[in-house]
Amino acid sequence: MSHVSAIELEIKDVDALKAACERLGLIWMQGKTTYRWYGQWVGDYPLPEGFKVEDLGKCTHAISVPGASYEIGVVTRNGKTTLLWDFWSSGGLEKILGKGGGKLKQAYTIETAKRAAKKAGYRVQEKRTLMDRFRGALGMQQVDGIRLTLRRY
Amino acid sequence: MAGEIIIEVDDEGTVEVKTHGFKGKACMKASEFVEQALGKVVSTKKTGEYYAEEVKETVRIKSNGNS
C-alpha cells in the first residue's frame, strides 16, 4: 500500500535537517534522487499538496532510516523544501519516527533553535524533560521532550 | 538583568517558548528570533506577571508549513 504524505514541517535550514538526522542516527544521502516507497500510488489518501502521482519517489536528497525498508525524500522546489514519506506500516518509518514523523520534527526544531540561539549570542544548555500532553484516547500522557535553556554569556 | 529563554519541544515537534527575567516588553523582543527561525506561532500566553517588572511569557509554536 502507498500512503505518501508530506511531513508537516517548514524546512528553513537544510543544515539543521542534516544535524537532526545525525542526532537520530539517520543517514543523509546527498544528491540521491529517489527514495524507497511502495512504488505505486493506490489513491486511498490525498496526494501531498503540489505533487502529482509521477512526482512520487523522486527527490533532491534522500534520508535512510536504519531498521526501516522505506526512505524519506527531501524535495527542494522553488526554494521550498518538503519531506515526503510513505508511512504505510510495512515500510517501518512511522514505527521508528513516530506519528507524523514527530521525532524528526522534534530533532529538527531543536537543531534549528540551537543554531538560531547561538547566532543571537546565547549560551545553550540542553536537557531531556517530560512534558504533559493530551493524546486523544490515551488522555493526558507524559511524553519525552527536550528543553533548551538560553542565557547570555 | 540577566534574561533567560526556555524552549521545550515535545515528541511531535510542538514548541513552547518561555521567557523570564526581561524587563517590560523586552521579553516579546527577546524570543522573537526563535519564533522567526521555527515558524508560525499558534498561541501566545502571558502570565499574570506581564505588567510587573519581571515578565514571563509563554509562546507555543507548531512546526508547520507544507500542508
Q: Care to describe what's here?
A:
The complex is a heterodimer of chains A (153) and B (67). By secondary structure, chain A is an alpha+beta fold. Chain A has a domain at 4-99. Chain A contains three helices and seven strands. Chain A has a five-stranded antiparallel β-sheet, with helices on one face. Chain A has a two-stranded antiparallel ribbon with strand order 6-7. Chain A is globular. Chain B has two helices and four strands; from the N terminus they run E-E-H-H-E-E. Chain B has a four-stranded antiparallel β-sheet with strand order 1-2-4-3. Chain B has helices at residues 26-30, 32-38, and strands at residues 4-9, 14-23, 41-46, 54-62. Chain B has one domain (4-62). Chain B is α+β, with helices and mostly antiparallel strands and 67 residues long. In chain B, strand 1 and strand 2 (14-23) form a beta hairpin. Chain A binds chain B through residues 5-13, 48-49, 80, 82, 98-100, 102-103, 105-106, 108-110, 112-113, 115-117, 119-120, 122, 129, 131, 133, 143-152, and chain B through 2-13, 15, 33-34, 36-40, 63-67.
Which descriptors would you attach to this protein?
heterodimer; A: 153 residues; 7 strands; B: alpha+beta
Principal-axis shape of chain A equals: globular
Percentage of residues assigned to helices of chain A: 10-25%
End-to-end gap of chain B: 41 Å
Largest sheet of chain B: 4 strands, antiparallel
Q: How are the strands of the largest sheet of chain B arranged? A: 1-2-4-3
Please outline the helices and strands.
The complex is a heterodimer of chains A (153) and B (67).
Chain A: E1 4-6, H1 14-24, E2 27-29, E3 61-64, E4 71-77, E5 80-86, H2 93-97, H3 102-119, E6 122-134, E7 140-152
Antiparallel strand pairs in A: 1-5, 2-3, 3-4, 4-5, 6-7
Helix pairs in contact in A: 1-3
Chain B: E1 4-9, E2 14-23, H1 26-30, H2 32-38, E3 41-46, E4 54-62
Antiparallel strand pairs in B: 1-2, 2-4, 3-4
